[in-house]
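for the writeup, i need someone to sanity check this before i put it in the appendix. the sequnce is what the collaborator sent (i think, or maybe the updated version? ugh). structure was predicted straight from it, no edits. if anything looks off just tell me and ill rerun, i have time this weekend
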Amino acid sequence: MDMKAVYRYIDQHAQDLIQDLAELVKQPSVSAKREGMQECAEKVESMLQETGFSTRLLPEKDGNPVVYGELKSKHSKKTLLFYDHYDVQPPEPLEEWRFDAFSGKVHEGRIYGRGTSDNKGNIVSRIKASEAFLKTIGDIPVNVKFVVEGEEEIGSPHLKPVMKQYNELFSNDATIWEFGGTNYEGRPEIYLGLKGVLSVELRAKGAIRDTHSANAPLIPNPAWRLIWALNTMKNDEEQIMIEGFYDNVQQPSKEELQLLKEMPLEEKKLKKAYGLKEFLQGRTGYEAKKELLFSPTCTINGFLTGYTGPRSKTVLPKEAMVKLDFRLVPNQKPDEIFEKLVSHLKGRGFSDIETVQYGSTEPTKTPVTDPFVEIVAKAAEKVYEKRAVVYPTSAGSGPMHLFRNLLGCPVVSAGCSHADAKVHAPNENLTIDGFIKGTKFMATIMNDLA
């Protein structure tokens, strides 16, 4: 169909998009703190209902509800599913925000607040794309489903049982994932997969209480114990030393490597943004891109022990804790990697260290050759008038495998964010121009899939 009327409606109702997003951002929904989750789920459900979707709140045992919405086309049998999440990261450090983290403040062409880009902007964008069709032609080109969960930012620990219980609700022909946007040059970026992730906590204990550091010759120090254990897991060349860690790593296909060559890597801008002179191991160009997308990782997220206040305190701590995450690539399985980690520590004499597994997701990818990939890439080019950058996978993680691996549908990640969105950081924002174009992009995908 001619999309001019749909685009015109989106332009004419830009203020409605902005207002709806601001209202959604004003509702805190921090899953790590269980703050405002039910209220935000109900707000998302209400937005879907007001647009014309039939909805359900699918309960998660011990978790936050999944918002489900469905709207059927009068003419098409094809179904497009939008996966999003209404939970956000904690806003701290609060003192670094220009505006209140949950203000939804509009300033100089941007909307500020936690969740503007990740992921509430995309929720609103996709709902409004559906509304644009209903208001202009009285129908939508394909059946549309929304699955909006509330635990993505903590590893989606309860989503799989919900999908199994309500399996028939989740069936679809293609899925648009929750993130994406444009790079520094304004080119749209789409992603065909995600790395898996395994989150782990290691705990070491010494004496039953903190003691004077003068006792160091006699009393074991759990901080050193963890440091020595960590030192066996990764060497100074960034190789992970856990036995069997790389056994099942799937090598990229020739099509994926070709995409890698075509992908831009804005090295100077990235280094400037992070205050770096060079990337790790001096990586650059093709090798940097290959490592970023196709190599598994082991990362220390945080280390906590002893006294960290002002000046000094000569204390020997009673316990120490370190949080790690492993980013995994096909065909690595989180549970298998966890077992190898436990076996590694035991074999190195660290069986006294307690090892706790938290959230995990499996890696997954949609083939470059899937027809849906071309549909999304061409839709992006129509709206942005620039060729899309197609990433064969992403360095990030999420529960995409539940849709790709369990349901078997093609999954492509695309959205309305931008390169300076400051996702997960203070001053997270979304450009109004990108928000409007992203809504047109989603509408174009719906039309072109039909």
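The domain at 4-194+363-449 is CATH 3.40.630.10 (Aminopeptidase). The first strand starts at residue 54 and ends at 58.
thx in advance!!
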